[in-house]
Design brief:
The complex is a heterodimer of chains A (about 60) and B (about 170). Chain A is mainly alpha-helical and about 60 residues long. Chain A contains 2 helices and 1 strand. Chain A has helices at about 10-30, 35-50, and one strand spanning about 55-60. The relative contact order of chain A is 0.06. Chain B is an alpha+beta fold and about 170 residues long. Chain B folds into 2 domains: about 1-110, Beta Polymerase, domain 2, CATH 3.30.460; about 115-169, no CATH class. Helices cover about 55% and strands about 20% of the residues of chain B. In chain B, α2 (about 25-35) crosses α5, α5 runs antiparallel to α6 and α5 crosses α7 (about 140-150). Chain B is globular and about 50 Å long. The chains are: A mainly alpha (about 60), B alpha+beta (about 170). The interface of A and B includes residues 42, 56 and 58 of A. β1 (about 55-60) of chain A pairs antiparallel with β6 of chain B.
């Protein structure tokens, strides 16, 4: 991959990402108890799926 | 069903040629290698030729009626952020060298542990430092240092951060 493939100025990209992350975090913090319980349950279920993962072909 | 549906959707994007390849990063990759953590969004590193294709990816989901909020595309109620590889060589090679994993009956790619730690070193928020400390025991340290050196900047910021984490461990 040549260096010309990569974006030169990524400042705006990272600013937008950080702003969006902060907004999402705020939303999660201010969620109701039942919403938080739902999120916790989803994380547990996703973690279970992730732990079931079997490596097929580790690539170098 | 959440995550499994999202992984299936990512595979569909790849099969349709909307993305060339992908790898799971962020908190979900941490959960794969370590313990469940409080994470809400899914970071997906994607191989895309250019910014135009990145916009096409958003257009694809907009046309399908998915909710889009800031940079997040909601797939099966999960906020997903796509991180294009043209942003950084680290993203590019994290996808290229990712591990192929089968989750039940769904294939997916997850960034290698040593790449994940390097990606966390670039963010380096307090919670990233805690995650790095927890992941370090499982990592191949020689490979990790090699990756850090490959993708470090002129000031060697990543290596410096790595040394800070080691000093705190």
């Amino acid at each position: 991959m040549s260096s010309s493939h990569y974006m030169k100025d990524t400042k705006k990209f990272w600013q937008t990402r950080n702003k969006s992350r902060t907004a999402l975090d705020k939303k999660r913090v201010s969620a109701s108890f039942s919403q938080k319980a739902k999120i916790a349950e989803k994380i547990r279920s996703d973690a279970k799926l992730l732990k079931s993962g079997v490596t097929v072909s580790p690539k170098k | 069903m959440g995550l499994k549906n999202v992984l299936a959707c990512l595979n569909e994007l790849k099969a349709a040629g909307i993305i060339q390849d992908y790898a799971i990063g962020g908190g979900y990759a941490v959960m794969y290698y370590d313990l469940p953590i409080s994470t809400y969004d899914l970071d997906v590193l994607v191989l895309l030729p250019n910014e135009e294709d990145y916009h096409k990816l958003y257009e694809h989901f907009r046309a399908k009626g998915n909710k889009i909020e800031d940079v997040y595309i909601f797939i099966d109620d999960m906020p997903v952020q796509f991180l294009p590889d043209y942003i950084s060589p680290l993203f590019h090679f994290a996808i290229k060298e990712a591990a192929s994993i089968v989750f039940e009956d769904v294939h997916a790619k997850v960034v290698k542990l040593e790449f994940l730690i390097t990606l966390l070193l670039t963010a380096f928020r307090p919670k990233d430092r805690i995650r790095i400390q927890s992941l370090l025991d499982k990592a191949d340290k020689r490979l990790l240092v090699d990756i850090i050196r490959r993708f470090d900047d002129e000031q060697q910021s990543l290596y410096e951060r790595y040394q800070k984490v080691l000093a705190d461990t």
